[in-house]
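Appendix B. Raw example, untouched.
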Amino acid sequence: MMYLAYLEKTTFDKINIFGYSMGGYVALYLAKNHSTRINKIMTLATKFQWTEEIAEKEIKMLNPEKIQEKLPAFAIILEERNKPNDWKLALKVTAEMMIALGKNNTLQLSDYETIEHNTLISIGDKDTMVTLEETIAVYRKLKNADFIVLPNTQHPIEKVEVERLSKEIQLFFK
C-alpha cells in the first residue's frame, strides 16, 4: 500500500489525515491496522457501506468514455488532477477497488469499535452517494469521534464550500 510506504519514508512520528470520500475509508483502515502512525483523522463524504449492488451502481459513474462524451469539462479536470498519471487508469483502478469492496468490505461495522483515534466524521447534507445512516452508524461505533453535517454540501469536492471546510479542518487538527 503506497500510503504505508509514504509513512515509512517520513520523519513524522504520527500524522493527521483528512480523508475525502475513499480517502476517509483508507484513513480509518490505516488507523485500524497501523494505529501507531496515525494521530487524528477527519473524514468527509466517506462511503462506509459496500455491497456488490452498491459497487455496481457506483462504478457506472466511472466510465471514461461516457465522462468524455457527456462531461468533457470534467474529463479535463480529471486529466489535470491525475497528471502525470492517466486519469482513465485511475478510474479503472477505483472501479476495481469498489468491486472488491462490494465482494468483501474490509472494514465491518464492528471494526470501528477498535479505532481509538480522535476522529471527526463529516458528511454533506445533500450527499447522494453516502447515506446519513451509514455515516452515523460508523460515528457511533468509534470511541473518540465527533460528527458534523456540512450544510448545503453535495458529494463532489468541487461543490464543497472551501472556506467552511477549511475552518472545520483547522479547528479539528488544532
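End of appendix B.
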